[in-house]
């Protein structure tokens, strides 16, 4: 096979990674943008989504697509409920202090991880794809499900954008983000907004996990890489910037796909980390972030 088809395959694989990474990173960016909380446990909400997908598909009778639809509805809601509970029991009691919440979410990370180990076990377990479709291109065959992942992630991201820019909920979130005391003075229940935002961020990570887990496998330690890459994307794009997060996810995903095919996956991670260092030195607010 010539260089051109290899490059096309690498770009297609990178696009799948970029789509899932964008969903995960948008959740992290949303939490920081509105709440000013760095959620170190974000990767574990991703992991919970994958584990929940395994549980639902394992116990759901019928064809795989039925279990997948049920998972896509139930897993994000369950993970969002866990996140909302964590917000009420932990973050709210700390008054959302930036330093204290970092320590608290580190603790939450280990609690969720060990809970998954106890209930789910240490083994990686497969989740069946909702359908088996292979598209035959002139040079190679490609999974139709992977293209579905890109399309589904795009629709979810579009829905997030519409909520943030065209709905009253988004208006309340942006008002709380800009000026919390003034929002409270106008009767906005800021604590409820924060709980909703934290749940929404976790739910987005769970949706990303549900989409990708048929390609990978569910494992109780799988939250580390999504957390690291999400932080890389959010730092490059700009903390709290939705547009910057999407652009950075596309940049990191496509570069990872190309470099992993032609060189080594480790090199892609090294270059991404180097890019983060350069951004922090020359443009600390990120490519699309506003200056403090």
From TrEMBL:
Cellular component (GO) terms are: plasma membrane
Topology relative to the membrane, per the entry? Multi-pass membrane protein
Q: Where does the chain cross the membrane?
A: 6-33, 45-62, 68-90, 102-122, 142-164, 193-215, 227-254, 261-282
**BP terms from Gene Ontology:** amino acid transport
Instruction: Please give one Gene Ontology molecular function term for this protein.
Output: transmembrane transporter activity
Q: What is any Pfam family matched here?
A: BPD_transp_2
User: CDD domains from the xrefs?
Assistant: TM_PBP1_LivH_like
Major subcellular location class: membrane
What keywords sit in the KW lines? Answer: Amino-acid transport, Cell membrane, Membrane, Transmembrane, Transmembrane helix, Transport
Source organism, top-level taxon: Bacteria
What InterPro entries does this protein's entry cite?
Answer: ABC_transp_permease (IPR001851), BCAA_transport_permease (IPR052157)
Could you tell me where this protein is found in the cell?
A: Cell membrane
Q: Which PANTHER family match?
A: ABC TRANSPORTER ATP-BINDING PROTEIN (PTHR11795:SF442), BRANCHED-CHAIN AMINO ACID TRANSPORT SYSTEM PERMEASE PROTEIN LIVH (PTHR11795)
What's the family?
Belongs to the binding-protein-dependent transport system permease family. LivHM subfamily.
Could you identify this protein by its name? Branched-chain amino acid ABC transporter permease
Q: Per the UniProt entry, what species is this protein from, by scientific name? A: Cereibacter changlensis JA139
